[in-house]
Amino acid sequence: MAFGYRTPASDDKNLLEMFENFDELSRLTGSQSAAILDLFPIARILPDFLVPVRQQGKKYHEREKRLFMRHFLNAREQLRSGTSKPSCAIDLLRAQKEYGFSDELACYLSGSLLQAGSETTAIILTGFFQAMLVFPEVAKEAQAEIDRVCGDRMPDLNDYPDLPYIRACMKESLRWMPATALGVPHAVTQDDWYMGYHIPKDAGLILNVWAIHNDPKRHPDPRRYNPARWAGDNQNSAQAAVNPDPTKRDHFVFGAGRRLCQGMHIADRSIFLAMSRTLWAFDLKRPVDRETGDDIIPDVDNIKDGLFISPMPFTADITPRSKSRAAAVKQEWSKVAGLLDDEMQWRTVPEGLKWKDYEPLDGENEDSLESLS
């Protein structure tokens, strides 16, 4: 989606390079050293050799820029050769001539989509799997709804309106394990007052997502994973995010104000498919301690902190619910595998995507593509 290539395995070199650097940046921005620069802005005028955290940040930034640019230029080569597939980078390349933005801006737009969408979605789903182990009654109710609506057919996006409990699980997962404890800093555009406090123009404000999501006045018994609290709330994330009544906001994972996450509709669809299809096909159960015979229950308070927060690693027993559903999963994979080449990249665009092989725009030729270099 970002640069036009698949990462077929968790040890894919491109994936590891990208996220190892991102993890280092996340660790750095969440460190106490970085926090000092926010608490005491006067320290920002100090030279780099007196601020090691800034030196490290610049190093990771340069590495990140090289990684993004490499993948962006690879997308450009695919565009020229006629082998490109749907991606943000390809759309930006075709718009670059008209709008005149730089390669650096374009590569960062694509890379930011990858960073913002991959890590957060994975964390939300990890939290969901953990919740299914800690609160197994939720998994049973969700599976009952899926079975009632879909039967032996794997859920798809057409089932979204008919699976309200799964939608409630989505909202509860985004509240319960929000991926980001704090939002991205924003600046106040004019002087303001709030509860007797003066907030001067240009002051930085940070949204405390974790505090809002775990406020017992807003969400009673907040550390209990309870999808029923969202009964009757039919808003999707985008609708809730722009609701002028803050009491009607389901969560603040995608930010607040004018600069909301632009990919929340993608996140909603990805999370819905992952949750519904996982529970349709598999049972998620607690592993058993071989010595005591007791269930091993994950500690929901054991959380990895930083720019992104996530559950610490935990174990689970994940088994197919039946032989027929295991066979259905394999059959679906076989259909997709037929669209891939030997390197597990898209040979053919999946049916349903609005895409065709690259054709020059009116008045566009090879020379105009060269001008994008």
TrEMBL record:
Cross-referenced Gene3D superfamilies: Cytochrome P450
Keyword Iron: yes
Transmembrane segments: none
GO MF annotations in UniProt: heme binding; iron ion binding; monooxygenase activity; oxidoreductase activity, acting on paired donors, with incorporation or reduction of molecular oxygen
Cofactor(s), by name: heme
Annotated Pfam families: p450
InterPro entries xref list: Cyt_P450, Cyt_P450_E_grp-I, Cyt_P450_sf, Cytochrome_P450_fung
Keywords tagged on the record: Heme, Iron, Metal-binding, Monooxygenase, Oxidoreductase
Binding site for heme: 261
CDD domains: CYP64-like
Family: Belongs to the cytochrome P450 family.
Name of the protein this chain belongs to: Cytochrome p450 domain-containing protein
Organism of derivation: Trichoderma breve
